[in-house]
UniProtKB/TrEMBL annotation:
This protein's GO CC annotations: extracellular region
Annotated protein name in UniProt: Bifunctional inhibitor/plant lipid transfer protein/seed storage helical domain-containing protein
Principal localisation: secreted
Organism: Nyssa sinensis
Protein's UniProt keywords contain Nucleotide-binding: no
Annotated Bifunctional inhibitor/plant lipid transfer protein/seed storage helical domain residues: 27-87
Amino acid sequence: MAATSVVVLFAVVALTMVVQSQAQISCSTELGNLNVCAPFVVAGAANTNPSPECCGALQAVEHDCICNTLRVAARLPSLCNLSPVTCNVN
């Protein structure tokens, strides 16, 4: 019985790790697809109206992927011993 429990526990942990790994790969791919939006978010860009391709790429990104990426990015300055970056974003 104990051996079976250990095997089941190991299988659940392994499956969880595979699912998390696939989610990270998917998030990275989704974020990479946002490169088509770069011309619309650069400061001083002549055209700030996103293209249909950009909107489609943004729509394909999971909400958690975007939020987690922004959280990690917001921590980078302190991890690099820099002053925090504050932005007035509406």
